[in-house]
Amino acid sequence: xxxxxxxxxxxxxxxxxxxxxxxxxxxxxxxxxxxxxxxxxxxxxxxxxxxxxxxxxxxxxxxxxxxxxxxxxxxxxxxxxxxxxxxxxxxxxxxxxxxxxxxxxxxxxxxxxxxxxxxxxxxxxxxxxxxxxxxxxxxxxxxxxxxxxxxxxxxxxxxxxxxxxxxxxxxxxxxxxxxxxxxxxxxxxxxxxxxxxxxxxxxxxxxxxxxxxxxxxxxxxxxxxxxxxxxxxxxxxxxxxxxxxxxxxxxxxxxxxxxxxxxxxxxxxxxxxxxxxxxxxxxxxxxxxxxx
Amino acid sequence: xxxxxxxxxxxxxxxxxxxxxxxxxxxxxxxxxxxxxxxxxxxxxxxxxxxxxxxxxxxxxxxxxxxxxxxxxxxxxxxxxxxxxxxxxxxxxxxxxxxxxxxxxxxxxxxxxxxxxxxxxxxxxxxxxxxxxxxxxxxxxxxxxxxxxxxxxxxxxxxxxxxx
Lengths: 292, 164
Description:
The complex is a heterodimer.
Chain A: E1 3-9, H1 18-28, E2 36-42, E3 48-54, H2 60-67, E4 75-79, E5 82-87, H3 91-100, E6 104-110, E7 113-119, H4 122-128, E8 138-144, E9 166-173, H5 176-185, H6 195-208, H7 213-223, E10 226-233, E11 238-242, E12 251-254, E13 258-262, E14 278-280, E15 288-290
Antiparallel strand pairs in A: 1-8, 1-13, 2-7, 2-8, 3-5, 3-6, 4-5, 9-10, 10-11, 11-15, 12-13, 12-14
Chain B: E1 2-4, H1 10-18, E2 28-32, E3 49-53, E4 68-71, E5 87-90, E6 106-109, E7 122-128, E8 142-147
Parallel strand pairs in B: 1-2, 2-3, 3-4, 4-5, 5-6, 6-7, 7-8
């Protein structure tokens, strides 16, 4: 099952309510995925941001103590057990430092993206992270019903494997083990045995080779075997792709102010002006994208 | 008689419509704020008229017998699936598997239908004023599928005696 949702704002009208709109969407998709939930919110900043998840027995004080001498111009935002670190130190330097700290996991980084994910019912997860307080330009969320890998935070979506990139997925892939092995040979790193993380790694690897997002996803139709509806987020917007059999649902609602996508219309029933929106299903094997 | 799904639960509304008191003369119903709910008006059996004002979720008017259901909006997967008789009229677009396995009655879709429209149909008449997605009328056994627009790949694949 699993539920996926996304909202992209075409103008600034709902910027401040972005988190609130996504909260409603995720709450309504809790029935499709009660095991864990996660979301990525894009809100552009001048400096790079790094979202890390604190493990138990490790708190913000410990983190600040370690990073004090290592990063410059640093700001911390604590959101439940996740911390968003903003710093002017360059990513090439910051990422190895963060990865070397035992007691934290780097969830994602970029100039816009902040990612939060956790095991538990989506309704509790969004409350815990106070998603309704977030503002930004676009956001993506996922509610998971675990099938092919364990119910852990590492097994939760969204997956971020590159700067300002993230992926949520409804479906399952059958060739992810082979693909993971070949991506590892090319230098990719994976944290879990999850199939979606492999798809995220596949996309990042292709973007790194200067292949456009659209072309990457079109190539994915050949290389990713299985069934899926993907939403992939980038700094500027997001793209949607369904496999050619298209047994995983998706519906899009578009108004002059926003584009929303969800597994079921129910997730969008509360959005402003949705009854006047242009509502349609993305066709199989075609990339739909906004902003990027 | 009006129902408001933002005030009443789905099962309250469905249960009322599924157990009509035939001694009363109430035969016309309007449902407001459907909010994408699933299985709305599923399993109706009596000659009643229901108008739904807005978009609904999966399996709307599934297994319908005798009733006339009009949806003033879009419908999710499996509208009028396994319908036996009656009329279901969708004024917007329909998602996948519209009219799947339907035995009788008429399904009219003013907009587009998605993939697998009329899959395994067994006597239902389906009229789609827009286009249909891939694998429509797959293994269709009897009945008629009328498409005024275009059809995607594998239309009528493995068809038996239904007409397109």
